[in-house]
């Protein structure tokens, strides 16, 4: 079999050349994969909140301070998109574990491959990242190049459009949930932020046999979606008695909080409701500063954990898990690739109740 499908001589990437700028279609010469490289036609690409932050060019640090992503190694122009399912169209001469015509989920959190962090399998935490859609061109494109076949995962029987979410949204929630386990049957998990990631978290928890779940969101629509996804209790954190209500509903047994918003108010709320020995896992990146009395940290023995995406091994485990459970039945809107800019805008403006997936 040939190691390449015949393609046109050029392709389009949707990229921005200044932070917060327009996503423009730019024509590029079709790459020829070398060595272990694999070229894939992008079939589907999820639109993630991380795309919004990268497009804006900063993370908020509170008190008007910002973390400038240009100072963190992100170089313009940027082609967003790290939740990608694609079909292999060409392989380099050394990419013996990849075959033309295979449809694969791409692991995007690529590191340098040489440091101690990468060597222990945590490329997502590498200090010299080469993540697709952030530091390297991503899936808002007709084609994408992956440096090695090991980053390509067989979907099994999953719907390929929804399966694209497993590369970030699903992986991020799955890795965060692993950080709060084991949980006893009577203990509660609080899910703050019931958008796409929160919904996936609730479904994953339920599929894993955890039934004591509380969904917390300011949106009535998202609270209702969280209830349908399996949350036993849903709450609006703005209500005056929200903390007391939650403590009462959970009988003081809030052992874990998964914060998919990650701002000062949600972190403060999570720390208030945790029981002694509880864990707060912060996943969201909306920003601000963490202030917490040190004596409480010690006497309550709480654990505060930052969770950033997940490992390649975890993504493989997640794909197996998703093939065994009804995990990806969340509200999804399919949009054409050329509408990428509108998708990022709608997500940034809070107009997306589930997830948007771009189709090439």
Automatic annotation (TrEMBL):
Its cofactor is Zn(2+). InterPro entries: ADH-like_C, ADH-like_N, ADH_Zn_CS, ER, GroES-like_sf, NAD(P)-bd_dom_sf. Gene3D superfamilies: Medium-chain alcohol dehydrogenases, catalytic domain, NAD(P)-binding Rossmann-like Domain. Keywords: Metal-binding, Oxidoreductase, Zinc. GO terms for molecular function: alcohol dehydrogenase (NAD+) activity; zinc ion binding. SUPFAM superfamilies: GroES-like, NAD(P)-binding Rossmann-fold domains. It is an enzyme of class 1 (oxidoreductase). Pfam families: ADH_N, ADH_zinc_N. It comes from the Bacteria. GO terms for cellular component: cytoplasm. Residues 21-358 form the Enoyl reductase (ER) domain. The keyword Zinc applies. Its EC number is 1.1.1.1. Belongs to the zinc-containing alcohol dehydrogenase family. This is alcohol dehydrogenase.
């Amino acid at each position: 079999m040939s190691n390449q499908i015949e393609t046109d001589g050029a392709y389009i990437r949707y990229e921005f050349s200044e932070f917060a700028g327009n996503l423009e279609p730019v024509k590029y010469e079709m790459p020829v994969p070398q060595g272990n490289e694999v070229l894939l036609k992008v079939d589907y690409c999820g639109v993630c909140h991380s795309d919004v932050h990268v497009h804006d060019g900063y993370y908020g640090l509170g008190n008007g301070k910002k973390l400038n992503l240009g100072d963190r190694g992100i170089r313009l122009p940027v082609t967003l998109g790290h939740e990608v399912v694609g079909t292999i169209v060409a392989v380099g001469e050394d990419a013996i574990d990849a075959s033309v015509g295979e449809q694969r989920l791409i692991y995007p959190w690529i590191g340098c491959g040489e440091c101690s962090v990468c060597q222990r399998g945590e490329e997502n935490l590498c200090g010299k990242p080469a993540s697709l859609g952030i530091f390297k061109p991503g899936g808002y494109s007709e084609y994408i190049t992956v440096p090695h076949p090991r980053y390509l995962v067989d979907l099994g029987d999953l719907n390929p459009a929804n399966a694209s979410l497993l590369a970030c949204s699903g992986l991020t929630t799955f890795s965060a949930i692993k950080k709060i386990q084991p949980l006893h049957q009577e203990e509660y998990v609080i899910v703050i932020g019931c958008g796409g990631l929160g919904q996936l978290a609730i479904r994953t928890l339920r599929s894993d046999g955890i039934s004591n779940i509380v969904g917390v969101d300011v949106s009535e629509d998202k609270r209702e979606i969280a209830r349908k996804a399996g949350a036993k209790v849903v709450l609006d954190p703005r209500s005056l008695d929200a903390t007391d209500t939650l403590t009462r509903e959970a009988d003081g047994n809030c052992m874990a909080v998964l914060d998919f918003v990650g701002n000062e108010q949600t972190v403060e709320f999570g720390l208030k409701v945790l029981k002694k020995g509880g864990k707060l896992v912060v996943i969201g990146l909306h920003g601000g500063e963490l202030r917490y009395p040190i004596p409480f940290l010690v006497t309550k023995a709480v654990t505060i954990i930052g969770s950033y995406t997940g490992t390649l091994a975890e993504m493989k485990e997640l794909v197996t898990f998703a093939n065994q459970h009804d995990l990806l039945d969340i509200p999804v809107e399919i949009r054409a690739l050329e509408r990428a800019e509108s998708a990022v805008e709608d997500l940034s403006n809070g107009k997306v109740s589930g997830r948007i997936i771009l189709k090439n």
